[in-house]
Amino acid sequence: MKYSKRIWLLLLMAFIPLLASAQKLEKQIDSLLGGVFKDKNGPGAAFLVAKNGKPIYRKAFGRANVELDVDLKPDHVFQLGSMTKQFTAVAILQLAEQGKLKLNIPISNYIPDYPGGNKITIHHLLTHTSGIKDFTKMKSLNSIAQKDLSPKEMVDFFKNEPVDFAPGEQFDYNNSGYVVLGYIIELVSGETYENYIQKHIFDKAGMSHSRYASDVAVINKRAYGYRKKGEVYFNKPNISFSIPFSSGALMSTVDDMLLWQNALNQNLLLKASTANLAFTTYKLNNGEEFTYGYGWHLKAINGVPTREHGGSVFGFKTMGVYIPSKDIYVIGLSNCECNSPTQVTKDIATLVLANGL
């Protein structure tokens, strides 16, 4: 009995500093987020911090629906914007792993009539080095913003625009490239992009609250999107989600995004060797290295390598940071264009590192 009590005492003594550290970190994160999301009656954000695949912080701030005074909760569903690109990249790698496509052959093998497609590879599309025109920079975008287009029609919208540079010459973040990738996923798999992602990623990872975006479907626990002019909030404008498509049309929760990160870590979706292609830095034609893999920015916090990506779509802004060496994941989802979580998500990751976790 005495021995047993001694063991319990030692365990308690070891646990108390950990508890104190966790409480300190929680207060620090609360303070950070409280300084950004000050308006409790306006739209806000949900945040989750995980260590070794388990949540250590999970809170939401502000309103999910301003008109109805519905508070945001961590399980609300947000539009992801360009974080969608991670899923598109992994889908492409799954098809490559199955031998259904190759990353370094011309896209003309899949889209024969694509102008200059004999010089552009899937690798170029994944790494934003293709040089094709980004449709979000085209003045004519407003003419189609609310039209429901097929993937082919969406690709046809920008494919004849003059290229900005020769493939592989520069890195220039490009939404069009990821739309082309989504079209190729459909051509190669024989499934719609929406169905492919649902079946081969969301279902496999257990992401039961994630889906392709819709403004008309009844979505349980949907967070509504807003923008702000001066001191006044407005509902986000409507767009057809066939426009952002595979570059920015998915929805998820902070909990599901942790399941996504864990699925990647556990090789549930890809072999480790294949997944590593997404987390490798590549070089331009002149040998210059750039800090983007396939669907992730590859950066660092205080010298510690990170995998990062944000997103922005009407009414929403998002940001995720993963620190592989420490298995730390920080995800922030905001339902207002006025509340970018980009910097505060990085700040939280920095805090977690500083606390020795």
TrEMBL record:
Recorded GO molecular functions are: hydrolase activity
Enzyme Commission number, as recorded: 3.1.1.103
Signal peptide limits = 1-22
Q: Which residues form the Beta-lactamase-related domain?
A: 38-339
Q: Which UniProt keywords apply?
A: Hydrolase, Signal
Under InterPro entries, the record lists: AmpC-like (IPR050491), Beta-lactam-related (IPR001466), Beta-lactam/transpept-like (IPR012338)
Taxonomic superkingdom: Bacteria
EC class (word):
hydrolase
Gene3D superfamilies xrefs = DD-peptidase/beta-lactamase superfamily (3.40.710.10)
- Quote the PANTHER family the UniProt record gives: BETA-LACTAMASE-RELATED DOMAIN-CONTAINING PROTEIN, D-ALANYL-D-ALANINE-CARBOXYPEPTIDASE/ENDOPEPTIDASE AMPH
Q: What is this protein called?
A: Serine hydrolase domain-containing protein
